[in-house]
Amino acid sequence: MKANKGAPGIDGIAIEDFPAHLRAHWEDSRRQLETGRYRPLAVRRVEIPKDDGGKRLLGIPTVMDRVIQQAIAQVLTPIFEPSFSDSSFGFRPGRNAHQAIKQVQVHVKDGYAIAVDIDLAKFFDTVNHDVLMKILGRTIHDKALLALIGRYLRAGVLVGEHIEPSAIGTPQGGPLSPLLANILLNELDHELEGRGHRFARYADDMVILVKSQRAGERVMQSLTRYLEGRLKLKLNPAKSKVARMSECGFLGFTINRGKIRWQEKKLAAFKHRVKELTGRSWGVSMAYRMHKLGQYVRGWLGYFGISEYYRPIPELDEWLRRRIRMCYWKQWRWPRTKISHLLALGVSLKTAIQHGVSSKSYWHMARTPAMQQALNNDWLQRQGVPRIKQLWCKVQGYTS
User: In sequence order, what DSSP letters do the residues of 75-92 get, joined into one string?
Assistant: First the structure.
């Protein structure tokens, strides 16, 4: 929690202040836990934007409750982990989203190119407590622990100034929620394995691969019945579909002709964020801008760089460098300053004066030969501008 810079819960106790709080209150909390009298506090509602314009609801427990939840998760994970499916990749030790998408790629190459794209409607907010507790009870026989988990599920949510009951759902934001989600959806995993299906799941994001549209429609119908009947979960009909994997998104990627590609909407979001970081009117130092830009681009390529579609990479590099040249041109501002910088960077006096007094747009000037000569690729890299091709090649395992 400290490494993640976690926010405080409804009691307002920050992580930095928690050690002193723990020393003062732990004995009482421990006795309450041992005697079954411990009552978790409600979680604090936080909304974060989603790519589709909607809001993802998070529930932030108090630091004390996060510590206790983490302790529960660390005990239960080794118990449940061996029973989890090999096709489940989310929130599990040694597993990640890249492995999930690469498994989908293998299935597509084997001829299973039709995807049954399952979207569970507000999954974390609609988990049925009775179903989940029944599944937990098959493995956990400690009634006190089951009761404590139940109290965490029913702790309530602080919305505004009022605490709302939580009769369903396991709010995202606590350390226990991902494990509980995997325990519940492990039932679906084993159902799919029992039917002989090929699939990959990352938390509540999943895709089942079949060979024909007709088979996909049958799977969609039967799984809808299973999810709604057995697990009391509902599909989002607007986002669930049966289509070729090249037309479906999974964890931000598609599989087109056997190759992994990032979704176009993910690239659009990337370019939008880069435009914000390279906005001409952002009043920050160039050093800070480069730092934040480098952080973002490296992080984005670290995840989306497994895309095997090379064609947009050089164009993105060129576009990013042009954005940065535009920032410098804007920062230099006055003709005299522009001329002096161009001269210092090796541009001839005549060309520097022509450019310095030009009234053409910043975007236009950023692409002129003089600016490309002065702020060449190597110079920009020394200032901290990331090279997209270099980062992509590193993720791919190539040498650029």
Answer: HHHHHHGGGS-TTB-TT-
